[in-house]
Amino acid sequence: MTVAISVRDRVESLPWAEIERDLWAEGAARTPPVLMPGECRELRALYGEEDAFRSTVAMARHNFGEGEYRYFAYPLPPLVQQLRESLYARLAPIANAWGAALRRDAGFPPSLDQFLARCHAAAQSRPTPLLLRYRAGGWNALHQDLYGDLVFPLQATCFLSRPGADFEGGEFLLVEQRPRAQSRGQVLTPEEGELVLFATRDHPLRTSRGYARASLRHGVSRVRRGERRTLGVIFHDAL
To answer: CATH number of the domain at 7-233, out of 3.30.40.10, 2.60.120.620, 3.30.70.60, 3.40.1190.10?
Structure first.
């Protein structure tokens, strides 16, 4: 794979003040395109390379939905590694601020390598970045990607297909459960190369008494036509 040397620079140049504002307010934020169309094509093409992955999950077999996803093996493809490292470095300060707001002892280190060392010491050593593929009729139930006791509170989905051209339907779903209130949903249709950054499990919600925890789950609506592929970037590894 051709590595885009400027991936880290692109992550650095994102409008982080706006992203942080949206993460605090909504538990999620959509970014401008980070990956170029050629990089999205290269990642989509990786799906057929058996040696790149440690496992494959057929979602219907586990009542997760209808579709398939594959977890990358270590070492990660360079583009995925760059994206994971650069996003983590930007999100770790936000994760620590969330922990302070929720009176949760977070203490996430500044680099991904340091955080993964903690994961591996806790027997969470299996890589969690993954490629997901949905064909017509595919969908994903609302869920959270936890994988063990050590959980980084933010994650990312990178959209590798073109809505309206490669597929129709397949909207990205976020459902937030606020304390003592009914659930609130968001429906997003990101373009190719864009990211959605969102809470892995919960996020701080400002109330008259300080901050409360708002739980967040994510999923995918039914794909009506074509094929939809995404890259999931989760920062904690799995048991």
So the answer is: 2.60.120.620
